[in-house]
Amino acid sequence: MSKVLVVTSGKGGTGKSTVAASLGAAFANRNKRVLLIDCDSGMRGLDIMLGVSKSLVFDIADAVSGNCKTEHIIYPCAHTEGLFLVPAPQKAEDELSPEVLSQFIDSVKNQYDIIIIDSPAGVGKGFETAVYPAQACLVVANAEPTSVRGCANVRKRLMELQKENIRLVINRLSKRNFFKLNFYPDLDAIIDETQIQLIGVVPESAQVVAAIQKGIVCTADSKALTAFDRIAGRLEGESLPLAVC
């Protein structure tokens, strides 16, 4: 039976979907069978990141409405064996309810080791749908005040939804800019403000961002890739360092 994770953020632009896709690849590289579910209705992007946009015909709304079979909306990643994608609906009005998403996951969960749900940014209706079936919640933040405040709001809403397994990912961290901008004295200040336990720090990497937006494999930046592997390992209960930058 799968472990179901959701990747969230308090605001757009944190690299949340990059984290979801890269974490999925990290689990797949650990010989896990991984299903990514894009829940950002009307704004889907994981199909581009995973190199399947040209072959995309059906999305999750088609399956739940009976327009196609479930297997028709599960697309293998073009460059990572063991990684699969369920695209979000193309139209925002086709957004799923929490119960329907949960039913869909129940129907496929025995086929995968890990299911990762990419939530829309913020805490709206789509967020509640994405969070509903999750056993663990990852909140993605950048080291800037607006992003950190957004994470605190996400944590509050997750607690209201009775989600207790909540972890923080600090993404796109540049040590030089962190100390130059001086928003926070250290990472502990970010953790204190969000009140979320840290599970990983991903260093800033233009190479990872560029590669994933092209739907190709990135091998140029070992620190960022190592960070995602460590997050995957920590989620599996391994004792690994938090940061690689």
Tell me briefly what this model is:
This protein is α/β, with parallel strands linked by helices and 245 residues long.
SSE blueprint and pairings:
Layout: E1 3-9, H1 16-29, E2 34-38, H2 46-49, H3 60-64, E3 75-76, E4 83-86, H4 98-108, E5 114-118, H5 125-131, E6 136-141, H6 145-160, E7 166-173, H7 175-181, H8 187-194, E8 197-203, H9 206-213, H10 222-235
Parallel strand pairs: 1-5, 1-6, 2-4, 2-5, 6-7, 7-8
Antiparallel strand pairs: 3-4
Structural features, described:
- The structure is a single chain.
- The chain has an eight-stranded mixed sheet with strand order 3-4-2-5-1-6-7-8, with helices on both faces.
- It has ten helices and eight strands.
- The mean pLDDT is 90.
- The protein starts with a strand and ends in a 10-residue tail after the last helix.
- It has 245 residues and is an alpha/beta fold.
- It has one domain: P-loop containing nucleotide triphosphate hydrolases (Rossmann fold).
